[in-house]
Amino acid sequence: MPRETQFILSGAEFSYPGSSGKVLSGIDLEIRAGEWVALLGSNGSGKTTLLKILSALLVPTQGSSFISGSSQDDAACGRKAPCAMVFQNPEDQIVASTLEEEVAFGPENLGCPAEEIRRRVTHSLEACGLSGMEKQLVSSLSGGQKQRLALAGALAMQPAAILLDEALSMLDPQSRRAFTEIIASEHAKGRTIVQVTHRIEEIRLAERMLLLKDGKIEFDMPREDFFRMRSEDLAAFGLELPPFEKLCEILRIRGLLPESCAADIGAVETYIYDAFGK
Ligand code: ADP
Predict the structure, then answer these.
(1) Which domain does 23 fall in, by range?
(2) pLDDT (tens digit per residue) in 156-174
(3) pLDDT tens-place string over residues 232-241
(4) pTM of the model
(5) Quick one: which of 204, 190, 197, 276 has its CA closest to 243?
(6) How far is ligand 1, taken at its centre, from the CA of residue 193, in Å?
(7) Closest ligand 1 atom number to CA of residue 24
(8) In this structure, are 274 and 206 located in the same domain?
(9) CATH code at position 45
(10) Which of 49, 166, 216 for a ligand 1 pocket mutation test, highest count of atoms within 8 Å of Cβ?
């Protein structure tokens, strides 16, 4: 069954007030419900601005944007949240003193009844590994816990889409894995994920890659094609291959791995087993 459209941008351009240059131009983009999309590119290429347009925090200065208002959840609230954003620095979005108040903020604004708010606070804190900490002060949390709290606040809105703006960049490797697992489980439930990053390690689970350069989408490709890109081509987008993908590239250049074999641990293992096993 074809998936419903979540976002459409047509001929979208954006300039910040008081600035003459265009930060985004010629953006034609359709994202369907349930996709996991990575937005990649060098600093200043326009990733955050594009994400803010998808979240309706900004409106294109030219062209049009459509954001579907529906959610897969049967929300027990007055309004549904089309999307919720998690920023790089949790301090930029945390507004309350205790964890409970913080997570309740979104559903309260959606008009949820008290019982539903309590249910969502408990469930979202639990999903983010913060259960039992409802009454604790936000100020007592570590940086990684604050980032998971920001995610819990986003989940409590039960949005159709979760938009992540470098949301993993301040986390240690263990917290990054935990955070990615939560995102993966939300994606498995049908939520759309749009993830801004400049670290390839963070987007191994993304299905579709958009590569931005100077405010334009230069490439829009499935994961398999992206992981066949060469280091020198990725460098133009401020991206560096992680060690495993770099090793696959070296093996391919030396003729030890076929071009057709994706930089995927399962595919490489199968190839090695078939070629050298038994
Ligand atoms: P990225 O997320 O890829 O680093 P951004 O969307 O943050 O890119 O920024 C794109 C361009 O817009 C940059 O040149 C940046 O300096 C500029 N920019 C970002 N925010 C503002 C703002 N509030 N006012 C003016 N210019 C801005």
Answers:
(1) 1-81+197-238
(2) 999 999 999 999 988 888 8
(3) 999 999 999 9
(4) 0.89
(5) 204
(6) 22
(7) 10
(8) no
(9) 3.40.50.300
(10) 49
